[in-house]
Amino acid sequence: MYRFLLTRQWVFVTLLALVLIPVMIELGFWQLHRHQARVAQNALIAKSLDAKPVPVEELTAPGETLPRSDYWRTVTATGRFDTEHEVVVRRRTNADDRVGFHVLTPFVLRDGKVLLVNRGWVPAAADQKAFPKVPPPPSGERTVKGRLMASQTTDASGIKDLKGLPDRQVMLISSEQQAQLLNKEVLGGYIELTDPATESPEQIAAPDHDSIGNHFAYAVQWWLFTAAVPVGWVFLVRREVRERREAQQASDADEAAEPVPA
């Protein structure tokens, strides 16, 4: 009765089921790992935002790569803004998903080192190649405060570092690139300015660390799909057996009903 499982059609169905089961199990674990990573990141953000502000040079130095444990830490720095070497970062969105620029201004510390400060978002000019209208930062020496971030890379951000851009426009916030352009010692990473607060440029909002997304629910869904595969296979086999049995019974009944030759 079960010899039909050796037919081409049923061999294909069985092999497909055997392939789907480990694939969907792996997809479930992939979503679980994304959930765990999101939970860990939320915990890191909360811890960093709650930490006491420290001078920026306690956490980073020229040429250093910022460790992940220091992301979003609030830091302070005293110096002056260097608007002469200010650049804008292309294709950045604000809280309303409008596309514009981030304003990246060098901040010269008392010891001559430079801290890159992302002062926030401004809308693009009508001509994308033109430098946008950027309100100037406060002049003179002052103390600023902001969230410390790692330099951006194409691998981490997915943003291509395009060449041949208009003057004073960049694709990535990179302390290494700016160190070459400025020919000065630039601290690793940069800060998202929080104080002094400004309406324009529109300052970058603190990162969301409350939402955990739907990754755990997706993991459970994949595992439920995994369990459904063998259940579905058994259901199809039993239905096939039942249909074949009913067909055999009907055939036997037809044969029994045929008149016997005289």
From TrEMBL:
Q: Which residues are listed as membrane-spanning?
A: 12-32
Q: What does UniProt give as GO cellular component?
A: plasma membrane
Q: Where in the cell is it found?
A: Cell membrane; Membrane
Which keywords does this Swiss-Prot/TrEMBL entry list?
Cell membrane, Membrane, Transmembrane, Transmembrane helix
Q: How does it sit in the membrane?
A: Multi-pass membrane protein
Kindly name one Pfam family recorded for this protein.
SURF1
> Major place of localization?
membrane
Asked if the keyword Ion transport belongs to this entry, the reply reads no
Q: Which InterPro entries match?
A: Surf1/Shy1 (IPR002994), Surf1/Surf4 (IPR045214)
| Family designation | Belongs to the SURF1 family.
Which protein, by its recorded name, is this?
SURF1-like protein
